[in-house]
Write a structure and sequence with these properties.
The protein has 232 residues and is of the alpha+beta class. The chain folds into 2 domains: 3-48 and 169-221; 52-154, no CATH class. Helices cover 32% and strands 18% of the residues. The chain has helices at residues 3-14, 24-45, 119-123, 176-190, 195-214; strands at 52-57, 68-70, 92-101, 111-115, 129-133, 136-139, 146-154. Strands 1-7-3-4-5-6-2 form a 7-stranded mixed beta sheet, with no helix packed on it. Helix 1 crosses helix 4 and helix 4 (176-190) runs antiparallel to helix 5 (195-214). It is elongated and about 60 Å long. The chain starts with a helix and ends in an 18-residue tail after the last helix.
Length: 232
């Protein structure tokens, strides 16, 4: 489905003919909230389905700092991925999946950095590690190389306007979940529950889970550790 088709479906589910009450801006707001809820579910089941990557060659600019990545600066691809410069570009970083040194002549990275949750923990870590705070990522040692960041972005390029034709993702059969989640938030504004939407949401969530388990051969026979940094 396109973002315009999702908006139309939301209007059908909401069943509100008064467009002065449920206007275009409100439709966009609720569908955008629904989109993030939907993407959160996809990321929970199969984060690789939404993953993207950018590269930073250290040291970055002047003053040169070869153990710190500024996410508001341009990546090697010319993008900013944090803060206002990233908004509206579909590259705004939401969560980091892996961070490693990219080897130009090898598939295998020379170092995979483990996440830690304080600067002190990183400073005393015996393994390569990183600490993310605001727009900056700090590395546990100096790097003069290309660092790759694999991450899940915030999708902030969709308008959900009437007639809009923007691509959402490759999982079109489940985009009705975006409209259903939007209905859940609209019910708060409307002051009335939508029991049919609430009844359908768990069923569609299970459908999505089954899809990701069965879309790859032998998938149901294995449990994947998606938190492991061994799969960089």
């Amino acid at each position: 489905m396109t973002d315009g088709e999702v908006a139309d479906l939301f209007r059908l589910y909401a069943d509100e003919p008064d467009q002065t009450f449920l206007d275009a801006a409100t439709v966009t707001t609720f569908c955008t909230i629904g989109l993030e809820k939907y993407r959160g579910l996809v990321a929970e089941i199969n984060p690789m389905g939404l993953m993207t990557g950018q590269h930073f060659t250290l040291p970055m600019g002047a003053p040169a700092d070869n153990n710190q990545i500024n996410l508001m600066a341009a990546t090697d691809e010319g993008n900013a991925i944090y803060g206002a410069p990233a908004v509206g570009l579909g590259r705004h970083i939401k969560s980091i999946h892996s961070l490693y040194i990219k080897q130009a002549a090898s598939v295998t990275p020379s170092a995979i950095f483990q996440p830690v949750y304080s600067y002190g923990e990183m400073a005393h870590s015996s393994a390569p590690s990183y600490f993310w705070r605001g727009p900056n990522i700090f590395l546990s040692y100096n790097v003069n190389d290309t660092v790759a960041i694999e991450y899940i972005p915030i999708q902030d390029t969709l308008t959900f306007a009437v007639g809009a034709t923007a691509f959402i993702d490759n999982f079109g059969p489940f985009h009705d979940l975006i409209a259903l989640y939007a209905c859940r938030h609209y019910a708060v504004m409307d002051g009335a529950p939508n029991p049919m939407a609430e009844a359908l949401i768990p069923s569609r969530e299970r459908d999505l889970q089954r899809y990701f388990v069965s879309r790859v051969g032998l998938g149901p026979q294995y449990v994947a550790d998606l938190t492991s940094t061994e799969a960089y």
